[in-house]
TrEMBL record:
Keywords: Signal, Storage protein. It holds the Pfam family Hemocyanin_N. It comes from the Eukaryota. This is Hexamerin-like. GO terms for molecular function: nutrient reservoir activity. SUPFAM superfamilies: Di-copper centre-containing domain, E set domains, Hemocyanin, N-terminal domain.
Amino acid sequence: MFPRLWLLGLLACSFVNAEYYNTKTADKDFLLKQKKVYNLLYHVSQPAEINYTWYEEGQKWDIEANINLYSNPAAVKEFLYMYKNSMLPRGEVFSLYYPYLLKEMVALFRLFYYANDFETFYKTALWARNNINEGEYIIAFYNAVIRRQDTKFIQLPPPYEVCPYLFFNSEVLQKSHHASLSDLRETSGEYKTYIFRANYSGWYMNREYYLENKLNYFMEDIGLNAYYFFFRQSFPFWMSSSEFGFQDYRGAEYLYGHQQIMNRYYLERLTNELPNLEDFDWEKPFYAGYYPTMTYQNGLPFPQRPEWSNFPSYKYKYITDIKDKESRIMSAIDTGYVFGNGTTKYYIYNEDGLNILGNIIEGNEDSFNQRFYGSIDALGRKILGYNLEPSSKYKILPSALEIFSTSLRDPAFYRLYKRIVDLYYRYKMHQTPYNKDELIYPNLKIESFSIDKLITYFEQFDTTISNGLFMDAQKDDKLPLIKIRQPRLNHKPFNFHITINSDKAMKAAIRIFLGPKYSSHHKLYELPENLKYFYEIDNWILDLNAGLNKITRNSQECFFTINDQEPSEVFYSKLEASLYSDKTFNYYERIFGFPERLLLPKGKKEGMPFQLFLYVSPVSTEYQFTSRIWGDYKFDNRPFGFPLDKPLDNFNYDGPNMLFKDILIYHKEEFDINITY
Ligand SMILES: *[C@@H]1O[C@H](CO)[C@@H](O)[C@H](O)[C@H]1NC(C)=O
Ligand SMILES: *[C@@H]1O[C@H](CO)[C@@H](O)[C@H](O)[C@H]1NC(C)=O
Ligand SMILES: *[C@@H]1O[C@H](CO)[C@@H](O)[C@H](O)[C@H]1NC(C)=O
């Protein structure tokens, strides 16, 4: 070992830098739009009380008289027709999983989307904010900002600020309505601030033998839930590729994105000594209960599901349906053919196959046959939520699974998606394994791979939620800020140190996966069986020089992660400072990402064993990934999850350009975080 290190020192090493996401400096036009977008999401439920000027401006806008200002008059007419007949009243709960409510929201979204210019969009949104149901308005508005050409990369406030009741438990929100009860007060700048402390669900009603609660800090993490919200806005199931020009991997991203969430979740289970997920049967009692202590903004509680309960009889019709649809999808996977809606059949063991499969499983607008394959995603949520049927079409009580911002809180989510991801594996396992030559590149040799000490800990984080609360309008003073202080998982920043020997200068792709080492029963995982649990934490392209290349990659750079968004009040005052003075305002050309804090699963005091898999290969072709949410990024054009995405055949991933490495993740309690080991 030592002679090798010494040699390394003598040889000329090249240091290779990584790329960052672009930041841009905002111009005046951007700043003005950005400010208006934030204004449009400010206290959505009280437009008239909060700013009468905006309210009046919205009420003055006449859509019908200005129909020539929208590029798709049919979309305008459709919306107006609905609006004049009936739409979900303000104050009621909204969910995308009720077809008539979805139709209303889509009509509103299309009205926003087809406004010819920003001014028309702005006026339309001001009007809608006064007159349309808040939930429909918020979803349509977020999607319009994400899709419109003239609002490219305009930032959106994190959803936990706009809809805090979808992210925090009732007892905290209840207290926060009475600022005077707060035991912590601060004055920061021009704002009076009241802070309430919050815990995760389990501490209030502990069910001693219900182990799923151990994961509440993860499943209820507001950053994780906001990530899932944005993930599902990336290709909303209700949009069709033909209308919105989607890339042809939406179905594949749906499957792989969920597989990644599942793998991240499994790592968190392991470190909490929880076994693998059990299977379930639609005919038998369902193990995982869910006891949310959450309340919708209209006062109705989130539905609960008792542990080990039978599926209620009012779900039977959906159960019949989902069983048929699951078996149709299985036969598509096993025969290799998906039936279109006419006489066409589509073969799925080719380049486009995974995408076709993802589309029929999600049952999105691109599904080749919605009637035949339905949507097991939607049906599964409908059944497992245990919520009652609405008594009239505008009185719904959706379950946590029927709202993207709350789905990850319910343990049933992971049972359902295990089933869906199993379909993905079934498809993958029918494919021919990679041939060794497709994976081994002898001209690229990993000389060393090390990682700084990995330490996780809990830190307190304050979320401003006043924007989503009912406030007494105040004439002159700024409204006070109400914040919730909650502990959240984080880790110390760390670096990967990689040395690669390349026989010539080339563009290479590096992939790093994090996976389990031992099962929850402390049994060593065998190779093929554990590969599917590996979670891709980084993937980037770099230029290698001939000879030795020393690479340092920081955890902050990992390809899909993002730091916490600034609280809106901070963001907004920076905007104003830039508008009314010459301060520059920088923004990222992306809206959201996976929370960097959650890159690593919680460790253990004595160190929790995991393993990393490092893989280096020449770039096949560069693929320019573009997304209004995740930003632009250049990838090596290979399948999602490459090279771990196919069955293994007499190969143990033991080439020179790949490496497994055992690691330990440590966890520090709050009180000893500043002690250095
Ligand atoms: C309402 O908005 C207008 C225009 O943006 C602004 O001048 C006014 O101060 C605001 N009023 C209140 C009460 O915030
Ligand atoms: C949080 O939970 C701890 C026990 O785990 C309890 O002592 C504390 O009072 C709780 N705090 C709040 C604000 O609910
Ligand atoms: C089949 O779907 C296409 C669009 O995907 C649609 O244009 C066509 O009308 C459908 N045919 C039938 C028979 O439903």
